[in-house]
Amino acid sequence: MTYIFDDDLRESLEDKYKIIWWEFYKKTFPSLLRFKRVSSKEENIKGYDRILCVGKHNKIILIEEKEDKYKTGNFFLEYISNDSTGSPGWICKPLKAEYIAYYFINYNKHYLFDTRLLQYVWIVNNEDWKYKYGIKIVPNVDYNTLGVAVPISKVLQEVNMFGHHKSVPTQLSFVFCE
Length: 178
Fold this sequence. Notes:
This protein has about 180 residues and is of the alpha+beta class. About 30% of the residues lie in helices and about 35% in strands. It has 5 helices and 10 strands. It starts with a helix and ends with a strand. The relative contact order is 0.16.
């Protein structure tokens, strides 16, 4: 099966997902006032998918969103976005987003990670995870995306471990909502 980015982007902009994301962000950030989904590939490349406005001072929070419609029980950690150009995936590249939100559609579960913390966990574990879980190649139209499918429990274990270290600056380890 060939993955088509534009198809997934179009699907993620549907109203049903807007409601699901709104409910999750409202639980996570009770003072949420409004949010906006980035709607173009060009904007998405900047390193965020959604802009949240929270609190009486209209604080802006940038979020990178991942939606998974498969029943694997794994986070897909994309480390090469395009193998033809060598462009890094979201787990490796500098993102403007403060948080990475991951939604498992079939389980109706959300996870929210501090971007720097999750990327740090990747730096520490990526070689081991590539060896242990294997490299997954996702064919796109003119290129492939490379990543590692890591069990949810393993990622959460590592995030918890490093999230409690003072050497890893973070405001939030992770949030889980059903």
